Amino acid sequence: MTHLGIFGGTFDPIHYGHLRSAVELREALSLEQVRMIPCHNPPHRDPPQASSEHRLAMLQLALQGSQGLVADDRELRRNRYSYTINTLETFRREQPDRRLMLIVGADAFSGFTAWHRWEDILDLADVVVMARPGSVLSGDAEDILRERQVMNIAACRGAVGNVLMRQLTQLDISSTRIRGWVASGHSVEFLLPRRVQEYIREHRLYAG
Ligand code: ATP
What we know:
This protein is an alpha/beta fold. The protein has one domain: HUPs (Rossmann fold), CATH 3.40.50. It is 39% helix and 17% strand. The chain contains 9 helices and 7 strands; from the N terminus they run E-H-E-H-E-H-H-E-H-H-E-H-E-E-H-H. The protein has a 7-stranded parallel β-sheet, sandwiched between helices. Helix 2 links the parallel strand 2 and strand 3. Helix 2 packs antiparallel against helix 9. It is globular and about 50 Å long. The termini are far apart. 38% of the residues are buried. Bound molecules: adenosine-5'-triphosphate. Adenosine-5'-triphosphate binds next to helix 1, strand 4, helix 5 and helix 8.
């Protein structure tokens, strides 16, 4: 059975922290693909600053020519709140032979028990948690780990719902800081792909 990585985010904008993590996980876990899925309007946080169309366009530019990382616009096409469980259900229907690996940062995983139908998510997918600079897991997240943690991908056989923690190259980059630097007229060079920087300039995104 092949494994499909599912990596959602606001990607407002996409940066090397996201991209490098996706590449490393694809290789380390032998994922056939990593689908990178911008969310339309996240239920747990403020709406993104850039429109869905801009965020998708930046993601597509960033992934041009990349091996196995694929921009997937299914949540944007849905045109309403994005719940991860609904997205996983669409993959389950479309690709019943693939094992789904949901990729989340440690910060996002800390709030996992607040996600819509979070227990159902664990009936459909394994979860890969990326350690992130400075992030500490919440008590709820620790409890899930205690019950479900496995140490390697080989243990992800049989029933899904395993949780795998991965240490990746730590790039302390966040979209929030990038937006702040753009707004204050500072350079964001080497934090995100050049094509994405040009797109931001051209469309005057994140300007104060
Ligand atoms: P913001 O600063 O706007 O909150 P962000 O940089 O955290 O954005 P998101 O699009 O919200 O980016 O993140 C999508 C996913 O990528 C989340 O699971 C998040 O934890 C993870 N992520 C974001 N930045 C990094 C990074 N530098 N290293 C590893 N994972 C990251």
